[in-house]
């Protein structure tokens, strides 16, 4: 395309007008076509079949974003911690999975250990006392809601990593059995409420992060029912939607687990 | 006599027009996100001058329950917005266009004169350059705002992984407010920009599409600068 007027030759007024009209026409048609192509592309995009609540191409980019963040941004670093005096009670946002009556005495954390291939499933149950017997970790971190608000909270509980150090439930009990996989550790953890109505998936790196807690205390008090008594997940690496309240089951698996909010259009990783 | 004079390079025109739909969709999806926790207002104490936004606004645009969709659009289009902006900056640096766009130490005084002119206070004509001082300041500012949106956006997108950046911007809540304020800034820029484009007229608008302006030059136009200024025969204008 020649955009420069030819300086060498002088145009008459009529010629200049003609030239201007010709070039304007060409440029406006190009812009119009580009606009139509853009509209067409947009139309194509929004009519793609939805994958978990959003058009598939958008979902693909969200997945790529998650992978990129996982590879290039460190998940190993610690989230900022705050002075305990800044801790407040967070808002309660939703009761999915918390509607059944809870019998605290009967409650158990039911863990299904990693059982790749054809190995028999390993199940183990924990009482709240078992969890409390693990090293107690306290931290004051910011709870961030995907809606955009945030609250500094002091949490206390057992690191999931400490539970797994004591009970190696995320690891293949018999790697020699030969599953053909190089890693002998589960890739994901899946958590669900006792009624199964709310469920989240975590990659194992996030589950093993030193600030990922099986939490039983909030701001120095035992967890209330609204905030997920008797045991909830807390991790400053993820939005609140991933921090399951009232954990009933914990499963270690190689398949990426279903996720309540990811099925409703949100990013599966929801990492911060 | 009329001549065609090149004004905006092709690359700049494409960067400019691509911004239009991308920024519109970014602001739109940003509104879907903001709706979920719309806490900002202009006011003091209990007095509110302006709430972002009144319920009628959300109702008029069916804004409800689109947080997930808003986030997905936002986190896809951020790539286009960022790459287009970086390409634009790189192009201005490499091509030397930055010389026309970057304010100089005279730009601020000149911008004041432009403002007086635009308000009808000053009648004298404006400098006949590609961009006057006010434009230089505005166009450079909007690029800095774009950089600000990227940084504040990253700070609220990954406040744990990029904790240092988030802290630098005053923490999560502040970064979110800054991100929002910048968006309001774009909207205000856009309103002034459109008003100025309408004022400047067709020739100016066409230059952003077709790249050239039609200018009137005196009969001896193209050779005039070469003529000796002190020629005794030159008539005094």
Automatic annotation (TrEMBL), chain A:
Signal peptide: none annotated. It comes from the Bacteria. Keywords: Membrane, Transmembrane, Transmembrane helix. Residues 101-261 form the Oxidoreductase molybdopterin-binding domain. The keyword Oxidoreductase does not apply. The chain crosses the membrane at residues 28-46. PANTHER family: PROTEIN-METHIONINE-SULFOXIDE REDUCTASE (PTHR43032). This is DMSO/TMAO reductase YedYZ molybdopterin-dependent catalytic subunit. It comes from Hymenobacter chitinivorans DSM 11115.
From TrEMBL, chain B:
It is a multi-pass membrane protein. Gene3D superfamilies: Transmembrane di-heme cytochromes, Chain C (1.20.950.20). Residues 8-210 form the Cytochrome b561 bacterial/Ni-hydrogenase domain. One of its GO terms (biological process) is respiratory electron transport chain. GO terms for cellular component: plasma membrane. The chain crosses the membrane at residues 12-35, 73-94, 137-157, 177-198. It is found in: Cell membrane. The keyword Lipid metabolism does not apply. Keywords: Cell membrane, Membrane, Transmembrane, Transmembrane helix. One of its GO terms (molecular function) is heme binding. PANTHER family: CYTOCHROME YDHU-RELATED (PTHR30485:SF1), NI/FE-HYDROGENASE 1 B-TYPE CYTOCHROME SUBUNIT (PTHR30485). This is Thiosulfate reductase cytochrome b subunit. It comes from Hymenobacter chitinivorans DSM 11115. The lineage of its organism: Bacteria, Pseudomonadati, Bacteroidota, Cytophagia, Cytophagales.
């Amino acid at each position: 395309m020649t955009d420069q007027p030819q300086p060498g030759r002088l145009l008459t007024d009529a010629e200049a007008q003609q030239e201007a009209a010709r070039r304007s026409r060409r440029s406006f048609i190009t812009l119009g076509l580009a606009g139509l192509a853009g509209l067409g592309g947009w139309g194509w995009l929004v009519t793609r079949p939805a994958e978990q609540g959003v058009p598939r191409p958008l979902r693909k980019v969200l997945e790529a974003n998650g992978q990129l963040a996982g590879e290039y941004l460190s998940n190993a670093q610690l989230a900022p911690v705050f002075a305990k005096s800044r801790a407040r009670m967070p808002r309660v946002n939703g009761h999915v999975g918390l509607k059944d009556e809870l019998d605290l005495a009967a409650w158990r954390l039911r863990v299904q250990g990693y059982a790749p291939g054809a190995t028999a499933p390993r199940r183990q149950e924990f009482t709240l006392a078992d969890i409390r017997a693990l090293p107690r970790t306290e931290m004051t971190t910011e709870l961030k809601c995907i809606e955009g608000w945030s609250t500094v909270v002091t949490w206390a509980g057992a690191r999931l990593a400490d539970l797994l150090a004591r009970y190696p439930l995320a690891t293949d009990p018999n790697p020699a059995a030969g599953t053909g996989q190089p890693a002998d550790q589960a890739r994901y953890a899946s958590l669900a409420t006792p009624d199964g109505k709310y469920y989240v998936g975590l990659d194992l790196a996030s589950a093993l992060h030193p600030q990922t807690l099986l939490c039983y205390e909030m701001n120095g008090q035992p967890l209330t029912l609204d905030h997920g008594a008797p045991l909830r997940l807390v991790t400053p690496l993820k939005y609140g939607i991933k921090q399951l309240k009232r954990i009933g089951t914990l499963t270690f698996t190689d398949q990426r687990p279903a996720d309540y909010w990811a099925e409703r259009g949100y990013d599966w990783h929801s990492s911060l | 006599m009329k001549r065609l004079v090149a004004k905006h390079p092709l690359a700049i025109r494409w960067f400019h027009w691509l911004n239009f739909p991308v920024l519109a969709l970014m602001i739109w999806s940003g509104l879907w996100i903001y709706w979920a926790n719309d806490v900002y207002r202009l006011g003091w104490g209990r007095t509110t001058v302006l709430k972002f936004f009144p319920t009628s606004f959300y109702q008029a645009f069916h804004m409800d329950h689109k947080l997930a969709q808003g986030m997905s659009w936002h986190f896809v289009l951020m790539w286009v917005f960022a790459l287009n902006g970086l390409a634009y900056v790189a192009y201005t640096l490499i091509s030397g266009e930055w010389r026309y766009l970057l304010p100089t130490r005279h730009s601020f005084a000149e911008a004041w004169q432009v403002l007086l002119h635009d308000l009808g206070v000053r009648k004298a004509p404006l400098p006949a350059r590609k961009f006057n001082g006010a434009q230089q300041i505005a166009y450079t500012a909007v690029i800095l705002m774009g950089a600000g949106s990227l940084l504040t956006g990253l700070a609220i997108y990954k406040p744990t992984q990029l904790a240092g950046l988030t802290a630098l911007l005053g923490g999560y809540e502040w970064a979110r407010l800054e991100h929002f304020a910048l968006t309001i800034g774009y909207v205000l820029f856009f309103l002034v920009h459109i008003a100025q484009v309408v004022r400047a007229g067709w020739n100016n608008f066409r230059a952003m599409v077709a790249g050239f302006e039609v200018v009137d030059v005196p009969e001896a136009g193209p050779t005039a600068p070469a003529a000796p200024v002190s020629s005794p025969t030159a008539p005094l204008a």
